[in-house]
């Protein structure tokens, strides 16, 4: 059955579908970055509110700023912006059609339609999932990179920007001129202090072309911090077949695990849906949740995905079935990451490590090591290096974290230990590969990336251990290095 509004009532009974009148929904949110994660997470929370009779005036208008987003728009439009979500529990599977999205802005150069849509008074939240590497942040200083060519362009051409952030600034300019008022900017990316980072990005970019507008945005718009969590693999032939097995033809279905979490700072200048009625948590302690999730889950992903790639293990669940990689995960988490994490009301750090172990082990979730290892140049400084620094400050060991960094260096050589080639998997792959080749002979050359490691190259407690591990990896292999660490 082809998925669209006209076939909703004819779908198989096993598929949960919207019970609300989609034709009566009105927009309240523009969401930029309509990837799988958004459709399995934020869109689902809003859908569940609508199922209870709430938030009928908060429907989502999708948006994107890259050419490939137009392909997604066309696919979504052909099925009335509906998405089939397939939950993959280890013991069962279920399907649900989510209907909280009602439109998708055409993707054109200069982003005129997006700017105009965000400037309309019904839009009260502009949300984003553009990945942690998409905020033009200099990793070394954590400040906004005003020298990036796209940012330079947007500052010089504020009415026809290239970036999502330039489009947001342009829309806010129109809203101020028209007396519409501000909206909330809501980052839904895996960044610690993501709301603060979004504020920094928007205000700094605005100041480059219009200081008065920048002051108005800073004084009137809000940018709540949040923590988001759900494992959502990429969609491929397997996922398309899952949808067909349930009796629905969906060109863009989404599979996901049976766990979600969304913790949000309650700071919305123009109102918000009551997401807490659908299971989200509003909290003044988002930072503690962020640290737990980013260090243990996202950091744990980096611990196992690079090792998995080097050793030819294709999936995250496969890594957890691999006795050495799983043991590496457990030891690094418990001895070097967990001690830096505070408890939150729902979990102690110990409980959360066990939860993540179980989630990573779900064999139904075919999440590839390649996907998780992507963009290490952003993820290592975001998810691993903070644990290194806090452990060093506390006088604790960083043996395992240094080993993981050495495995990443070995991965970036671009050749697995079985001799197969690693296709480029980072925006800066060529630079990483060149340094990895140098590090074969001079291991500490890898630590010269100050935008990732800062001054850690000068700290013997990390640099010497890293050097020893990389020498061991090249002399004896990655498994032997892991064995040595596990025995320590």
Automatic annotation (TrEMBL):
| Annotated Mannitol dehydrogenase N-terminal domain residues | 28-277
**Single GO MF annotation:** oxidoreductase activity, acting on the CH-OH group of donors, NAD or NADP as acceptor
Q: Residue limits of the Mannitol dehydrogenase C-terminal domain?
A: 285-467
Q: Which InterPro entries match?
A: 6-PGluconate_DH-like_C_sf, 6PGD_dom2, Mannitol_DH, Mannitol_DH/Oxidoreductase, Mannitol_DH_C, Mannitol_DH_N, NAD(P)-bd_dom_sf
Q: Which domain of life is it from?
A: Bacteria
Keywords in alphabetical order, please.
Oxidoreductase
Q: Gene3D superfamilies of this UniProt entry?
A: N-(1-d-carboxylethyl)-l-norvaline Dehydrogenase, domain 2 (1.10.1040.10), NAD(P)-binding Rossmann-like Domain (3.40.50.720)
- Read off the PANTHER family from this record: MANNITOL DEHYDROGENASE 2-RELATED, MANNITOL DEHYDROGENASE DSF1-RELATED
Put simply, this protein is called Multiple polyol-specific dehydrogenase
- Species of origin reads Celeribacter marinus
Q: According to the entry, what is the taxonomic lineage of the organism?
A: Bacteria, Pseudomonadati, Pseudomonadota, Alphaproteobacteria, Rhodobacterales
